[in-house]
C-alpha cells in the first residue's frame, strides 16, 4: 500500500518554503541560549506567520532544546480554522511533510483514542490547517527523532480535550504543544489589555475565564488548563506581544503568547 503524506499547505506563505532558508531562519529565531534546567511538559505557542509570531514561538521552543534526544513523541493540538466539525480530528496519513522533510505520525498513540466518540479521522480538517503545520518545522529543527500526534480541534468541550491529553500524556518522552493566538484585530492598546488579562487567566489556571474572543485556540487551550489545574502543574509566561510589536501596524493587531507548563 502506498504511503500517505500530508503535504504542506502554507509553506512560502507562513514560513520559507525552501529548506535552507527555513533552517537559517529557525537558527536565527532560536539563537538565544536558555538557562532553564527543567524541561517543560507542555508548551503554549502562537501560529501566525513566522515574521509575526516566530520569535514568540521560539521563546517557548527554546525551552525544549536541552531535551532534544529525550523527546520521542509530540502531541500537537490546534484549532480548526477552515473546516467545522465536532470533537477532535486525527489524520489518516503516515507522515506530515515540510521543507525540512517528513515526520512520521504515531499510529499507536492515536489507537489509544479509538474508543472516544469525540475523536475521529478527517484529512479534510488537516488539509489546509496552518495552526498545526507551522509548529512542525520548529520541532524538526530542535528534536533528534520524534513521532507526531496532530489533532485538529473543532467544537469540543474542555473536558473532552483534557481526556485526550490525559490518554496521551506519557512520561518524559512525550511533549504536548497547544497552538493558539490570542486576541484578534483590536487596536494595539486594547489588545495589550485583553492579552494581559488572558495571560493572567492562563497563569492562574482559570479556563472558565477565557472566552472564544480571547484566543482562537481557546478550546485546546482550556483543555490543557483544565488538566493543569487537576495535575497541579506550574505555568510560566515567556513572552507576550502582538503583531504591532513585530511586523504589523498598530491599528488592527493579533496577540501572541508563549508559555511553558511544568510538572512538579
UniProtKB/TrEMBL annotation:
It holds the Pfam family Memo. Gene3D superfamilies: LigB-like. InterPro entries: MEMO1_fam (IPR002737). Belongs to the MEMO1 family. HAMAP family: MEMO1. This is MEMO1 family protein NB231_00440. It comes from Nitrococcus mobilis Nb-231. The lineage of its organism: Bacteria, Pseudomonadati, Pseudomonadota, Gammaproteobacteria, Chromatiales.
Amino acid at each position: 500500500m502506498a504511503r500517505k503524506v500530508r503535504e504542506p499547505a502554507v509553506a512560502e506563505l507562513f514560513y520559507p518554503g525552501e529548506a535552507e532558508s527555513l533552517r537559517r531562519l529557525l537558527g536565527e529565531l532560536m539563537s538565544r541560549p536558555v538557562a532553564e534546567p527543567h524541561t517543560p511538559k507542555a508548551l503554549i505557542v502562537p501560529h501566525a506567520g513566522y515574521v509575526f509570531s516566530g520569535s514568540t514561538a521560539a521563546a517557548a521552543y527554546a525551552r525544549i532544546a536541552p531535551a532534544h534526544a529525550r523527546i520521542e513523541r509530540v502531541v500537537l493540538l490546534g484549532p480548526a480554522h477552515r473546516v467545522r466539525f465536532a470533537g477532535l480530528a486525527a489524520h489518516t496519513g503516515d507522515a506530515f511533510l515540510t521543507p525540512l522533510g517528513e515526520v512520521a505520525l504515531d499510529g499507536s498513540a492515536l489507537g489509544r483514542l479509538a474508543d472516544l466518540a469525540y475523536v475521529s479521522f478527517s484529512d479534510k480538517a488537516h488539509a489546509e490547517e496552518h495552526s498545526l503545520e507551522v509548529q512542525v518545522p520548529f520541532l524538526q529543527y530542535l528534536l533528534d527523532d520524534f513521532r507526531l500526534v496532530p489533532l485538529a480541534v473543532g467544537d469540543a468541550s474542555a473536558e473532552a480535550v483534557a481526556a485526550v491529553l490525559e490518554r496521551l500524556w506519557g512520561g518524559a518522552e512525550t511533549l504536548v504543544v497547544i497552538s493558539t493566538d490570542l486576541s484578534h484585530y483590536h487596536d494595539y492598546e486594547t489588545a495589550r489589555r485583553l492579552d494581559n488579562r488572558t495571560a493572567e487567566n492562563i497563569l492562574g489556571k482559570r479556563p472558565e475565564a477565557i472566552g472564544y474572543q480571547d484566543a482562537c485556540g481557546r478550546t485546546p487551550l482550556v483543555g490543557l488548563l483544565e488538566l493543569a489545574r487537576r495535575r497541579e502543574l506550574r505555568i510560566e509566561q515567556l513572552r507576550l506581544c502582538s503583531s504591532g510589536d513585530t511586523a504589523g501596524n498598530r491599528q488592527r493587531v493579533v496577540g501572541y503568547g508563549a508559555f511553558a507548563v511544568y510538572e512538579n
